[in-house]
Amino acid sequence: MKSFLGLAVAPFVTAYHCPGSSSTVHASCKVSVTANAPCDKVMAEMKARVDGQSTGQWHDPHNNGTYSLTGSSGQDSLDFQRVTGNKKYTDKLLFDFTDTGNQCEISGCSESQVFSVADFSTNYCNMRMLYCGSVDGCKPVKFDFTMQETQVEPSLGAGHNPADCLKVAQASNSFMAATPTQCPPEGFDTVEDFDLAKFISKRWYIQQQMAVNYLPASQNRCVYAEYQLREKSFWGYDVSVHNHAEEVAAPHKVHDSGKTLCAKVVDKSRGKLEVAPCFLPTALAGPYWVLDYSEEEGYALISGGAPKESGADGCKTGTGTNGAGLWIFTRQQKRDEALVQKVRSIAKSKGFDLSVLNDVDQSDCTETVALAI
In the predicted model, what is the mean pLDDT of residues 340-367? Predict the structure, then answer.
């Protein structure tokens, strides 16, 4: 890395290098950042995040874009490109790195490659998502360091709001799929090659859920679910189900299903089950569908069947007992906002109305031992 140890008393002057764009008018952003780590670790962390997309170690919290390392104009620079989550737009990024003692000075530039003015902070987020740390709400892969953005220069009309980087753009934004015109959306389906054994191996914590008849919003506290294979029952149930929830209002009354719920596997490879009280015949059970699931990233998206009703901004299930509900599961009880936003974007891409989802408070929960079900 370039060293400025001998000039430590001199102010650092940023020299921006930009990747260029094929469009004369385009959105862009430049940043100057001081990272509290050597440049080799900063560069290694950026590469690890990009590489981590293929292994499940990392995902882009900003609308699930896809990064790739396109080259380097020198040992002190990195060139990337990022394709938006809907695969429609490509931005190019260029970073230069200079060691200053135990810190690294980063100068970065991101440019859209098509005609654009307003970018909803996209070019800024393109860069920030590669150097932000855990204190900023990001998820490092190899090295976690703090940083200070000393200068941010968006082009006219472009944004630079850090909060935009950890949330999914609204449907009115061109980066998101349009609201479906039919419910359920054409081609709607569940996960493929589902591994039931792995899915039920550990407890799931609910981070967001839709209010339904048997689980109103007043019980959105310390909600979790756990499952266990069982001998096929008289009615044909294969899985024991244990749900737990608490009242939001003190004294936080507990609502626990105990050993009363069971599930029948309908389509194992596609994650389709049916759930009901164990004493009821399976003909009266309601759908429980796994729409998306990653054990490596620790999330699952669950619905009470296909979303057949039209909502304010997409499709939704009913709110009764059967054919109702939408849930975001995570393996970790502590909320990972970036991961929650990723699963929300998956739900949106499947045509769901996200306005039905409410947060679940997973803080200050009493640790409970798994119930033998």
Answer: 92
